[in-house]
């Protein structure tokens, strides 16, 4: 008879995190999610619906929805169109890809 009360000795998620493929997939998925959040927030800041952004970028509302959900990889040509319409700058890319921007020196010469 099986012992159903026997505890699992290892955490399957902790074990999965040790796998290089899992780590690579996790990092890729996290970047897609950050991109989706950035697109969503910029779209709202520009008072655009998903339909309006789709029309401006010559794609579909479904594609915009999937991008905002992090459910799809984006083609470079589509990303360029979205970036242009939403006015993405260095700050957006820094948040998406987790890098720091150099601090601007605001000192003026006398």
Structure description:
It is a single chain. The chain has helices at residues 12-17, 20-45, 50-56, 61-69, 76-86, 90-97. It is extended. The protein has 6 helices and no strands. With 110 residues, the chain is mainly α. The model has no long low-confidence stretch (mean pLDDT 86). Helix 2 (20-45) crosses helix 4 (61-69) and helix 2 (20-45) runs antiparallel to helix 6 (90-97).
Question: Key terms for this structure?
Answer:
110 residues; mainly alpha
Hey, roughly how much beta strand do the residues contain?
Answer: under 5%
Structural class from helices and strands?
mainly alpha
How many beta-strand segments? 0
Tell me the major beta sheet.
none
Helix content: 55-70%
Mean pLDDT: 86
Order of helices and strands, N to C? HHHHHH
Please state the CA-atom Rg, rounded to the nearest Å.
Answer: 21 Å
Cα end-to-end separation: 86 Å
What is the helix tally?
6
- The stretches of 5 or more residues where confidence is low (pLDDT under 50) are none
Shape: extended
């Amino acid at each position: 008879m099986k012992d159903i009360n026997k505890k699992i000795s290892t955490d399957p998620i902790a074990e999965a995190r040790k796998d290089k493929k899992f780590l690579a997939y996790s990092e890729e998925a996290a970047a897609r999610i950050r991109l989706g959040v950035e697109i969503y927030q910029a779209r709202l800041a520009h008072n655009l619906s998903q339909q309006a952004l789709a029309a401006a970028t010559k794609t579909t509302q479904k594609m915009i929805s999937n991008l905002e959900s992090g459910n799809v990889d984006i083609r470079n040509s589509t990303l360029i169109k979205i970036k242009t319409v939403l006015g993405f700058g260095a700050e957006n890319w820094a948040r998406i890809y987790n890098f720091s921007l150099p601090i601007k020196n605001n000192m003026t010469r006398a």
